[in-house]
Amino acid sequence: MTRPAPMTRPAPLTLLQLAMTLALGLVTALGIAQRGIADEPVRIVSAGGSITEIVYALGQQDRLVARDTTSNHPAQALELPNVGYVRRLSPEGLLSVNPDLILAEEGAGPPETFEVLEGSGLPIITIPMGFDLPAVQEKITAVAAALDVPAAGAALVAQVTEEVEGAQKAAGLHNQRILFVLSMQGGRIMAAGRNTAADGIITMAGAQNAIDGFEGYKLITDEAVITAAPDVILMMQSHRPGAITADDLLSHPALSTTPAGRDQAVLQMDGMLMLGFSVRTGQAVTELANALATAGH
C-alpha cells in the first residue's frame, strides 16, 4: 500500500513573514477604514532625502507625515517624524504613522520590509536613482507623477535643468583628479569608483574621478591610493562623533604622499547637497567647481 507523502512544515522564516504580513495588513486596513479612501494620497512617507527635497519644491509638503534620516533639507522636514535610515527601515516604523503611500528611493530597504508592506496592500512607489542630469529630471518627473502634479513637475524639471546647465557652463574644466573618501576602516580608505553619486558630481563639475578601476564604494590599498595620485581629496561634512576629519586624511601615510596630501587640498561638502542628485544639484555643481578652482592654493 502506498503511503501518502508526509506534510512538510513551512520554514520558520516563512511563518514569521506570513504572521507579520497578516498583522500589518490588518493595521493598514483599519487605518484605511478610519480615514476613508482618498482620491489621492494625503499621508505620505518619504524614504529618501532627494525625494523629500522634490516634494517640498513641488509645494506638496503638507501631504508628508514622516521622512527618513537622510531627509535633512529643507529644515522644516526635520520637524516630521523620523522612520529611520533609508536602507534599514522597519515595517512597524513605517506603519506607525498610518501612511497611504510610501515614496521610496531605489535601493531603500531592507527588501524584507518592503515585501511585508506590499503584502499588506500599502501602495509603494519606487523612485529611480541616477547620477547625472537626465537622472535628476527623471526623478522629479516620477515624484510629480506619484503626487499627480505633472504640470508642477514639468516646471520644476525646466528650472533645475536651467540651473544645472548654467552651473556646468560657468564651472569650466578644471580636470583635477579627485579622490572621494567615504570613510576609513582599519586605516584603509573607502573610496568612490565609477557609477556612484560621488563620481557623478565630480564629472558634472568638470573634474575626474581618480579611481576608475571599479564600480561602487570599496576599500583600496595604500598602493592604489598612491597610484591614483589625487590632486584633491573630497569628503562629506560630518559632525558625528568618531567621523573622519581632514586631519585624519592628511596624516594617512599613503594620502600624505599624494599631490593632494602635499598641498593639503581637502574639500568638505554637505553630503545631501553633494550626493543627493535632486533639486539642488545645480548649487552642488557650482559650489564644488568653485572650491576646486582654489583647492590647494
UniProtKB/TrEMBL annotation:
Q: What is this protein called?
A: Hemin-binding periplasmic protein HmuT
Q: Which residues form the Fe/B12 periplasmic-binding domain?
A: 43-297
Give the organism, scientific name: Shimia marina
Coiled-coil region list: none
**Origin: domain of life:** Bacteria
Membrane-spanning ranges = none
Alphabetized CDD domains for the sequence: HutB
- Gene symbol of the encoding locus: hmuT
Listed InterPro entries: ABC_Transporter_SBP (IPR050902), ABC_transptr_periplasmic_BD (IPR002491)
